[in-house]
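Example record for the data management plan.
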Amino acid sequence: MFDYNQKPDLNITPLVDIMLVLLAILMVTAPVVEFEEPVNLPKGSKSQQIQSVKKIDILLTKNKKIKINKKSFEFDTFADNFVLFAQNKDRKTPIHIRAEKTLMYNDVIYILKSVKEAGFTKVSLITDG
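Corresponding structural encoding:
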């Protein structure tokens, strides 16, 4: 017969096993989940013709020679020479800066800073794709 004073044995081993398996699955899948921010991109106009815009190309060689549209300048006097070069240019003209990859970061930033201080707003650093 059944004894009502006897307490039942609780076996929680299967519960612990299931929780550990779920924890392992969560730890493996959590780093893989990527969050995406929705961005509304502007629509392009199909009826507008592409206009050829004159741009300024700046090339910085590995021996710190600077060429602006085929004219050579010295690195040390670039800031002053660029201000003189750009005094009659439109400040919205796009500028593309190309630099040798072996150069120091500070050298390229010096060129970028000089162009920005001259008032140009559309400045791009060009890299190999």
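Summary line stored alongside the record: Residues 13-29 form the longest helix (17 residues).
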